């Protein structure tokens, strides 16, 4: 009885950690356009800013939301084990709280972007730390963590849309993988590359194509269609990240391939306008979220299962760079594609 209670307590604990860790990150992504639009409308010196410049600023927000996370995940796994988990969590909380204050109270674009950077630092360091922390628990907590991060996506997107005015502690541990981290990294490539490819295709859709999938004769406005795309995508992520207790997918390359097919389909849909209704896009973005969430949670489950105990803490932290690298590269690729379609 005590063992089952402990198992559920740990699962719920990691669910809450996932929810809190990703919440600020999701809100900043959902609010990217409105953050800049607010600044544009309040600053009298830039009333004549073109839509193209606004789109460039939106991409600046999106990159500010992912690049700090990418840098942290690239370098922190080699040194982060020297810092106690309690200190890391406190730092993440301070960064997240500061990010909300900066964005909500800012009167200039650069202050808003600084707030987004703080949210990215909090999310990136938190994800890396909490994934490392799972090495001290049973693999069941990965299902809780994955479900919580998916829940953050839905909660962040829904809460932002709803509030929009017009619409146990483990002992400190030093990773023994420091000596063998090179071999660790080589072994992780079979997980990191498919995960990165899934996220590249996923965020290429989200950052470069989703806003352009507009149906003027649909009963929802352009902004409302875009918000529903984001909400349904996040709901798909929640469902698949919560599915680890029911189904496990070892063929990660299959998920990568299917996500790339999604990206190609929507790329041609934007160019040739052959989709008849937003309802079809709703189905595709829900499916997109299902694939992305499944890739994330299954990647870390099989890393935890297939790495040795002495390497697991480092492996869980180092592999988290895959999704961030894919997102960053997607942002760089999506920007010129978005500009090209806007100028047609």
UniProtKB/TrEMBL annotation:
GO cellular component, one term: endomembrane system
GO terms, biological process: lysosome organization; regulation of intracellular pH
Subcellular location: Endomembrane system; Lysosome membrane
SUPFAM superfamilies: MFS general substrate transporter
Bilayer-crossing regions: 12-36, 56-76, 85-103, 109-130, 142-163, 252-272, 278-302, 314-335
UniProt keyword Transport present: yes
Superkingdom: Eukaryota
Topology with respect to the bilayer: Multi-pass membrane protein
Keyword terms of this UniProt record: Lysosome, Membrane, Transmembrane, Transmembrane helix, Transport
Pfam families: CLN3
Record PANTHER family: BATTENIN
UniProt record similarity statement: Belongs to the battenin family.
Protein name, per record: Battenin
Species of provenance: Lates calcarifer (Barramundi)
């Amino acid at each position: 009885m005590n063992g089952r209670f402990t198992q559920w307590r740990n699962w719920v604990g990691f669910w809450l950690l996932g929810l809190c860790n990703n919440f600020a990150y999701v809100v900043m992504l959902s609010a990217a356009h409105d953050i800049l639009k607010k600044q544009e409308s309040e600053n009298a010196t830039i009333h004549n800013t073109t839509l193209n410049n606004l789109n460039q600023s939106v991409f600046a927000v999106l990159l500010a939301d992912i690049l700090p996370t990418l840098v942290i995940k690239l370098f922190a796994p080699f040194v982060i084990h020297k810092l106690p988990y309690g200190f890391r969590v406190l730092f993440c909380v301070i960064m997240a709280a500061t990010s909300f204050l900066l964005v909500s109270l800012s009167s200039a674009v650069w202050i808003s972007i600084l707030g987004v950077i703080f949210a990215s630092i909090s999310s990136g360091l938190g994800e890396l730390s909490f994934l490392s922390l799972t090495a001290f628990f049973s693999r069941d907590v990965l299902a809780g963590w994955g479900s919580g991060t998916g829940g953050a996506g839905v909660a962040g997107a829904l809460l932002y849309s709803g509030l929009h005015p017009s619409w146990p502690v483990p002992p400190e541990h030093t990773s023994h993988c420091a000596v063998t981290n090179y071999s660790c990294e080589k072994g992780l490539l079979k997980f990191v590359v498919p995960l990165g490819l899934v996220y590249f295709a996923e965020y290429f859709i989200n950052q470069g194509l989703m806003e352009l999938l507009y149906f003027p004769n649909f009963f929802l406005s352009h902004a409302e269609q875009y918000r529903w795309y984001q909400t349904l995508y996040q709901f798909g992520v929640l469902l698949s990240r919560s599915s680890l207790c029911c189904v496990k997918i070892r063929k990660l390359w299959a998920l990568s391939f299917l996500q790339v097919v999604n990206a190609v389909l929507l790329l041609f849909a934007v160019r040739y306008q052959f989709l008849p209704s937003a309802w079809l896009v709703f189905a595709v973005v829900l499916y997109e979220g299902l694939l992305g969430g499944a890739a994330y949670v299954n990647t870390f489950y099989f890393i935890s299962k297939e790495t040795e105990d002495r390497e697991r803490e480092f492996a869980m932290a180092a592999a988290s760079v895959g999704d961030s690298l894919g997102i960053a590269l997607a942002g760089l690729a999506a920007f010129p594609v978005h500009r090209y379609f806007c100028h047609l």
